[in-house]
Amino acid sequence: MANPKTKKRRRIIVFSAIGLVLVGLTLAAIFRKREPVITVQTEKVTRRNITETVVANGKIQPVLQVKISPEVSGEIIDLPVKEGQSVKRGDLLAKIKPDTYVANMKSAQAQYMSAASGKDLAEASMKKAELEFKRHEELFRSRLESESTFLEFKTGFDVAKAQYESSAHQVDVAKAALDRAKEELAKTTIVSPLDGTISKLNSRLGERVVGTAMMTGTEIMIVSDLNEMEARIDVGEIDVVLIKPGQKTRLEVDAYHDRKFKGTVTEIANSSKDSGQGGGGGGNSQEATKFEVRIRVDEKEKNAMRRRTRRMCRKRSRAKRNRRKPTNQWKSSLSPGATRSSWSRSSAASATMNTSR
Known about the structure:
By secondary structure, the protein is of the alpha+beta class. The chain has 5 helices and 13 strands. It has helices spanning 4-32, 99-141, 147-186, 299-321, 328-332; strands at 51-68, 74-78, 86-87, 92-96, 189-191, 196-201, 208-209, 221-236, 248-253, 260-268, 273-278, 285-297, 347-356. The strands form 2 sheets. A 6-stranded antiparallel beta barrel has the order 1-8-12-10-9-13. Helix 2 (99-141) runs antiparallel to helix 3 (147-186). The longest helix has 43 residues, at 99-141.
């Protein structure tokens, strides 16, 4: 017969093993189903404004820039400016070969003088015909001359008067032609219309340019006023309703890396810019409606941006005269994706505008 103490010890061991197994299974189940702790922030309920941030991309460029195109055609014989150079209003920008226009002016002047002489001759003939008409009119009233003779001199006087009026109009035509020839000759000299900087120079000395009064001619250069800078960004139709003139913005320019500029919304386009891609014959087209928003750079920020832009213009002008490959420092001054022909005039930028409601 088994010892009661041995049976009791065995029972305790069995129940202890069963308990340990159950505890292990319970712990395994608990750790397996355990979810991550969610942190919840609480705060006292108050009335506040909801601030929405609008982010859009665009370009930084001068507020005023003028494309210089000639109004007459010819060869450039003088080009005293270079890209990045500062100019004043009235400074010489380019001169077109004037030989043809000088000849045209001399021809028009000779025609004008000839017309003026013809007018003097017609005036003298008219006065002579008037005197003869008055003399024969007195004879006709005294019944010393026939009516047919009187009518003949009267008609001669009328013809002389008409010839004088015609010669006077010919003088006016010749004078207008002379003025036009002088104006065309004056247009061979192109001067700066404003104080600014040569931000782009397309033509070179000796090139031939085309100029017409009815349409835009060859673009010789661009003169920009770097004292006033603005960002022109495209904002979607959903966000544009949140923007109002006078709102403060923060500008981030690719060329300035970590620096941020302050700006003010000055103008919002009334009509949209449809920038979409679609085939002419296909029915698939995707269009995004954009509105142009102009943001003026604040006065305190303009000086730094203007100095940087002028330095970049001068650097580019020097590099164009150097045939060597640009250094890494040259490349780093370019904004990502910008071309060498456009970076001196505009730089990629993004604008952030906060609106509250």
